[in-house]
């Protein structure tokens, strides 16, 4: 098997772990709230603290990946977030939990920007969409697996021990990554001459002299702002599935934890399918000679599906149709990921870590707002309906945004 596919396996498993660690707090909401005396609004701040830390460190961690390479960067940040995952099990009050989850989010921030930087060096341009889809499908499958599995783990061992076990797994991944991965295919000792030649001839080319990219240049780019705006909408929809979907289904339809876990995992599985389909579609359209439309068509299709799914779910009277429509919404929201991240690599090139990190920063501002908007809108209006209509409206705005994105124009130029 080609060595670059071992890279894909490693990043897929990392995305799997990333979201198992991330969604664990949602599954553990009731026992944590019970032990620490927290209400729904306080838990909303706990869930949003992760997104805030994650958002704030996106661009710095992306720049770190560009400067030091994804080998050292990923080994370092995975070790850090795994430490804070384990430390979550040792918190004693609301403030301690808030601080640990903020630091956990900051630790996780560099994962996908570092993956983007590795993809730039290792993955040919005509494979970029599918590989991105595979990586993000790992995150959705990880979250889907975590919902019932972590519910069982917490029932058996308690929430404190569960967080500690997950932290140990992350440390092991970081060690294996550092030992086996190399930043550039030219530096890998066991890469065949044939595969090395294929990668170098088919990956995106850049000039030998690469100018330093300042944060001012990044935020002056129209492409960058458009990418940030549409990703804000995508994350607003998706982060609901990671945070409030499980307790929402459990409370609204009077389910036990395992039932809620299985129902809440369905939209995440459809999210993985959306990543795979969109990744394939990106590469298929690109191979037909349409670079621009290979990014725009999958993204717009996804946002339309996401808006429709959110609106239809409001009118579902039982758990099964509600989950079906929410699965449609998450399938659509996740269709936007391969074109979004492929576009960041397109316009960022050797600075793709910083560019993708900046886009992801905006996306996780959306996540931060989602975690708070759901409980607060419910409290203010007495209904969850306004939340879903806000999400749908943001998705329609994102459709319009994509019409202005130009994937073939570099971030320094447009």
From TrEMBL:
UniProt keyword Transmembrane, yes or no: yes
Subcellular location: Membrane
Major facilitator superfamily (MFS) profile domain residues: 7-410
SUPFAM superfamilies: MFS general substrate transporter
TM stretches of this protein: 42-57, 78-104, 157-181, 224-246, 266-286, 293-312, 318-337, 358-377, 383-405
Lipid bilayer topology: Multi-pass membrane protein
Keyword Transmembrane attributed: yes
Protein keywords: Membrane, Transmembrane, Transmembrane helix
One Pfam family cited in the UniProt record for this chain: MFS_1
Database matches in InterPro entries: MFS, MFS_dom, MFS_Na/Anion_cotransporter, MFS_trans_sf
This protein's name: MFS transporter
Species name: Agaribacillus aureus
């Amino acid at each position: 098997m080609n060595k670059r596919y071992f890279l894909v396996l490693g990043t897929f498993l990392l995305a799997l772990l990333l979201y198992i660690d991330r969604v664990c707090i949602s599954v553990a909401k009731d026992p944590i709230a019970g032990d620490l005396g927290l209400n729904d609004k306080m838990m909303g701040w706990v869930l949003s603290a992760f997104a805030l830390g994650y958002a704030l460190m996106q661009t710095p961690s992306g720049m770190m990946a560009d400067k030091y390479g994804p080998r050292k960067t990923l080994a370092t940040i995975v070790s850090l977030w795994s430490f804070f995952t384990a430390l979550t099990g040792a918190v004693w009050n609301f403030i301690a939990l808030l601080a640990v989850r903020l630091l956990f989010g900051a630790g996780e921030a560099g994962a996908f920007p570092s993956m983007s930087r590795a993809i730039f060096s290792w993955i040919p341009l005509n494979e970029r969409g599918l590989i991105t889809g595979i990586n993000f499908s790992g995150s959705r499958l990880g979250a889907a697996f975590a919902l019932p599995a972590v519910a069982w783990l917490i029932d058996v061992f308690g929430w404190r021990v569960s967080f500690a076990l997950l932290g140990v797994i992350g440390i092991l991944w970081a060690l294996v990554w550092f030992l086996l991965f190399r930043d550039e295919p030219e530096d890998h000792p066991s890469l065949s001459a044939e595969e090395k030649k294929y990668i170098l001839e088919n990956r995106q080319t850049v000039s030998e002299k690469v100018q330093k990219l300042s944060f001012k240049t990044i935020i002056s780019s129209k492409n960058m702002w458009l990418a940030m705006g549409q990703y804000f909408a995508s994350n607003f929809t998706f982060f609901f599935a990671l945070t409030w979907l499980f307790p929402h289904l459990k409370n609204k339809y009077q389910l036990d934890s395992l039932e809620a876990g299985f129902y809440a995992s369905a939209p995440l599985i459809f999210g993985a399918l959306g990543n795979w389909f969109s990744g394939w579609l990106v590469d298929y359209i690109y191979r037909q000679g349409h670079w621009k439309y290979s990014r725009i068509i999958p993204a717009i299709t996804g946002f339309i599906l996401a808006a429709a799914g959110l609106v239809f779910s409001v009118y579902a009277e039982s758990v099964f149709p509600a989950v079906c429509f929410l699965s449609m919404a998450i399938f659509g929201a996740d269709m936007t990921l391969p074109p979004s991240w492929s576009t960041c690599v397109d316009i960022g090139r050797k600075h793709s870590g910083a560019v993708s990190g900046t886009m992801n920063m905006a996306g996780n501002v959306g996540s931060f707002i989602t975690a708070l908007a759901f409980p607060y809108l419910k409290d203010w209006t007495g209904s969850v309906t306004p939340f879903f209509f806000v999400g749908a409206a943001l998705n329609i705005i994102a459709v319009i945004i994509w019409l202005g994105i130009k994937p073939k124009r570099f971030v320094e130029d447009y």
